[in-house]
Amino acid sequence: MGKHSALTLTRDASAEQPEQPEQAKKNSMVLPAILVIVGLLVMLYPVVSTALNNYGTSKAAKEFAKLEKSVPQEVKDEQWERAHSYNERHTTGPILDPWLNEINDHNPEYAAYLDQLNATDVMARLIFPEIKADLPIYHGTSDEVLAKGLGHLYGSDLPVGGVGTHSIITGHTGLTNVTLFDNLRKAKEGDAFYIQVAGHKLKYEIDQIKVVLPHETDDLRPVEGQDYITLITCTPYGINTHRLLVRGHQVPMDPSESNVFDQTHGTGWQWWMYALLVTVLVLGAGFAWWLWRQRLDADEELDDDAENADVETADGDADSDELADGSESASEDNNNTSWWENDNE
User: Within this chain, do residues 78 and 213 fall inside the same structural domain, yes or no?
Assistant: First the structure.
């Protein structure tokens, strides 16, 4: 009886053992799964952050347009006239590269500059349909400003137009979390961009595109008899050793073009965003397939272990039966022997 119980316990223990390798294999897949998921999320971060920030910049430009409508007309007229007076009386200082030079915020002249076109936080709005740009323009070119939109270069004329004026609008290229002027390199001569400022709407047609070194600023100075706005950004993409200058001159705007300010021109997804998303999807699908294969292998191993356990159980039952039969035979022999001995006595 004791031997039979021991065999039963051994059989029960062997039936439980196949669960241990399966659990160990599942545990071994947890860490790789976590690492892959974290890696995919990290890869997606630039796509998500760029999409959100692009939405934010376009929203800021549209909010400016809405706020401007709520500003009383007399306030907008005053802002417009003051901006023109500022352009007429101020002496154009040296035009400095916005990325290599900083302006002292405590300069009284700079404070006077900040007092212009300040009915809202945004100075003006730039719409460039050909490159799908709808961006807010802020005062100055500080890092904080250029991280959230375009900056007006202090020392150049305010972007309100006028003969003999030249306004400079700057924007970043190549930031990992927002598009801004990434597509400015796609601009062509003859393209038009639009400025909304102080209740007025202006149209500029591109007539010159140049690449210069940072210290070459002659093309940024006013030209007598001309009304210019130049859009400037760093180039080549990701290297930033030169400056891309896209200059436009003011042209009359057809009344039918006024609806351009009511349309959506927000920056869409860039090619690299699609490429990165496809890469993440492919890697994610590949990892999901790998997990599926691992699960199938684990199930197959479990089935094999179960079959082996059944075979061992069957063998154990046969051995125990043989042992039991042997014990019974031995017992009968002993009984017969005892009976025979008793009879002889």
Answer: yes
Chain-centre distance for alpha carbon 144: 19
Pair of tokens at residue 25: 């294999």
> Is 273 within the bounds of a domain?
no
| CA 227-233-238 angle, 5° bins | 165
CA distances from residue 287 to 149, 186, 280, 290, 291 in whole angstroms, order as listed: 39, 38, 10, 5, 6
Residue 51 identity: A
d(CA 255, CA 52): 33
Closest by CA position to 202, among listed 164, 229, 169: 229
Q: State how far Cα 330 lies from the chain centre.
A: 83
Residue that finishes a domain, picked among 247, 268, 289: 268
Beta strand 165-170 with 192-197 is unpaired
Burial grade of 212 (CB within 10 A; 0-12, 13-18, 19 or more):
middle
pLDDT in tens, 281-302: 888 888 888 878 877 776 676 6
Domain that residue 311 falls in: 2-44+278-330
Q: How confident is the model at residue 57 (pLDDT cuts 50, 70, 90)?
A: confident
What's the Cα-to-Cα distance from 277 to each of 38, 209, 222, 270, 291, rounded to whole Å?
15, 33, 45, 11, 21
Q: How far is CA 315 from CA 7, 32, 93, 318, 320, in A?
A: 11, 40, 100, 5, 9
- Are 120 and 60 within 8 A, CB to CB? no
How far CA 204 is from CA of 166, 220, 310, 316, in Å, comes to 12, 16, 85, 94
Query: CB under 8 Å to 210, separation ≥6 — which residues?
Result: 219, 244, 245, 247
Quick one: 184 exposed, middle or buried, by C-beta within 10 A (0-12, 13-18, 19+)?
Answer: buried
The single-letter DSSP state of residue 158 is P
What length does the chain have?
345
How do residues 301-329 score in pLDDT, each as one tens digit? 666 666 666 555 655 555 555 555 555 55
Indicate whether 90 and 204 sit together in one domain. Answer: yes
